[in-house]
Amino acid sequence: MSISTILVANRGEIAERVFATAKDMGLRCIAVYSEADSNSSFVNTADLAVHIPGYLDGEAIIAAALKTEADAIHPGYGFLSENAEFAKAVTDAGLIWIGPSPKVIKSMGDKIEAKKAAVNAKVPILPSSDDPTAGDDVGYPLLVKAAAGGGGKGMHIVESSKNLSEAVESAQREALKSFGDDRVFIERYVPSSHHIEIQILGDSHGTLIHLGERECSIQRRHQKIIEEAPSPTIDSELRNLIAEAALNLAKNIGYESTGTVEFLLDHDSKEFFFLEVNTRLQVEHPVTEETTGIDLVRQQILIAQGEKMECTQESISSSGHSIEARLYAEDPSNNFLPAIGTLSAFRVPENPNIRWDVGVSKGTEVGVQFDPMLAKVTSKGSTRKEAALRLAKALEELHLGGITTNREFLISTLRHEAFLAGDTTTDFIERHSPNNSNFLTSDEISRAAAIAALWIQGENRSAALVLDQIPTGWRNSRFPDQQISFTSGDEQFDVAYHSNRDGSFTLNGIDQTSVHRHSPIDIDIDINDVRSTHLVTRAKNEIFIQMDRGTAHLSIIPHFIPPGTNEVADGLVSPMPGVVLDIRVQVGDTVEAGQILLVLEAMKMEHHINAPEEGTVTEIFVAVGQQIEQGVVMMVIDDGLEKQDD
Fold first, then answer.
1. CA–CA separation, 532 and 534 (whole Å)
2. pTM
3. Is residue 286 reached through a cis peptide bond, with omega within 30 degrees of 0 on the bond before it?
4. For the sheet containing 590-591, what is the strand order?
5. 535 and which of 174, 251, 546, 619 could share a cystine (Cβ 3.0–4.6 Å)?
6. Is the peptide bond before 352 cis (omega within 30 degrees of 0)?
7. For the chain, what are the domain ranges?
8. Residue 33 near residue 58, CB atoms below 8 Å
9. Regions in the chain scoring below 50 on pLDDT
10. Architecture, CATH, for domain 5-98
11. Fold that domain 127-188 belongs to in CATH
C-alpha cells in the first residue's frame, strides 16, 4: 500500500497541520470544505479542494476522495475521526484509512465497552454504571458522560440526586446531536485530580510504544485549554506505572496507529484510573512532538501504508518542556460562553520557540457552526517556567482584535504563581480564578490613542491627492490643534496634536514626538523620548494598536453620533448567539432566582439561561427553534419593584 494523495476530512488548523507533513513527504493534498469555509486558508493550502454539504457527510467525503483520485483519508480530530462506520466505509471504497481499525474505533469509541476492556487488561477504573439512574450506587458527586462522546460534550457534574434526571436528559440531547448516539453513563467525579494521558503508537509489525505523558488538567467546561509535557505532577515511578497500564490496554485491543490512553490521577491518594482511549490524533499532540522530536502525523501515514514505525521504545527520548494553550473565541467573564464576530486584526509574532497551529486569518468570520477554537499556540523551553513565560509573552504579542477571546485568561493562568509551582489540578480555575480582563492600564491605552492619532494622520497624508507633502492640519498662522477622540471600554481618550516645522509633532502638549516611519500596517514612533514600533489595523472606526502587553482596541468617536436604541426594562438578553432549544416558562409564571428559564444551544453544547432574580414573566420574545444573536432580548421579568426615571 502506497499513498501518493491524501484527503483530509476536516477543516481549519488540523487540516493545515496534516497538509504540512503530507507535503513534506511529497504527497498531494486534497481538502473538503463546506459553504461556511469557502474563504478559509486551509482550502487554498491544499492542491485541490472539493465542496461538500457538511463535515459529517461521510458519503460526500468518500466521493470527493474518489473524484480526486486520493489514495487515503486522514480524519483529523472531531467530526468523523472516531466514527467506526465511516472508517469501514472508507476501506470498503478501496481507500486507505489513516487511523486504527474500525473494530478498535468501535470498541474504544463506546466508553462503556472501553471500561470493560480496561478491566480485562487489569487497568483500574472509577466506580461507574451504564444505568444513568443508579446515582446512589455510584455515589455523589458524579459525572454524566456520553457513551460515544468526547471534548466535554454530553458531560455534566451532578452534586445530588435531585439534579440527576435534568443532567441526564441534557447530556442525552447533546450526545445525540454531537455523536449521533444518545447513550450516557455515570461515573464517580473526583473534584481535585489531574488529567494524565499517554501517547501511544502501534504498527502492523507488532511494535507498540509510548511517547511519554501529557498533563491536561487546566480545563473549563471539562474541555482542556492548557496542556503540557511532561507532567509536573508525577515522578518517574508513577510515570512508568501509568505508561505500562496504557500499553497493556493497547496490546489487549490490538492497537495500531496513533492514539491516546487517558487517566485520572487523584491528587490526594495518587491513585490513577482509566478514563478513555482516543483513537485519533489529539488536539494537544504538538507538546509531545516538541519534546520528543517525533512527527506524529508522519508516523500515522507510515503505519497506514503498512510500514514500520521509525522509532522504537529504546530510541524515544524527551528533552525540555512544552506547553500548549488553546486560543478560543469565548468570554471568560461570561462563563466562557462562545463569542462570534469578524477577526478584524490577526497576525502572529515570529519566534523560533513558538509554534502556531492556526486555521484563521484577518477577516475570518467566526460563527456558531463550529468549535470556537481559533488557534493552538505551543512553546518549548529548557525548563517548565521558561516554556510558560515564553508562551504568555507570545500570546501578548499576538496582534488580535474584533472578537472576544480567552487570551488574557490564558496569559494570567500561565503566569499564575500556583501554575508555575505545578499546582495543576482539574479544579485550578475554580480555586484560583485567573484574571480575565484586559491587562493594559489607562496610561498604556492613552499612549495607544496618541499612536493611533498620528497613524491616522499619516494614512490621511498618504491618501491625499493634492498637497500630500504638507502635514495634516498645517497652517501658516496660529489655529487650534487637530483633535480626535477615542473610546476604550468605558473610558474616553482625547488627543490633540499639531505638526511643527521640523517634521515633529506636539502631541497633547508634549513637544518630543516624532514619527520615524509609517506604513499601512505599522508605525515607528517616539513619544517623550520613548521609541517603539507598533502593528496597527483599522477596521472602519475601530483601531487596533499592538502594545507590549496586548492589543489596544480603540473606537473612533464620530463627529456626528447616531441616535442610540432604548433597552427594554427588565429585559433578559441572550449572552451568546445560539438556537433556542427549550422554553421552560410561560407569560404569567412566577420564577425564582436561579430557575432555568430556557435552554440555548451553541457550538453543539447546551447552555441553561437562569432567572437573575425573583419575579414574574411578563413577555417572551423568542420561540423554540429560533436562531438568535448575542444581546437579543429574550423575555421580560418584572421584579415587582417600582421603577424610577433616571
1. 7
2. 0.84
3. no
4. 571-573, 633-638, 615-620, 590-591
5. 546
6. no
7. 5-98, 127-188, 195-432, 442-556, 571-638
8. no
9. 561-566, 644-646
10. 3-Layer(aba) Sandwich (3.40)
11. Dna Ligase; domain 1 (3.30.1490)
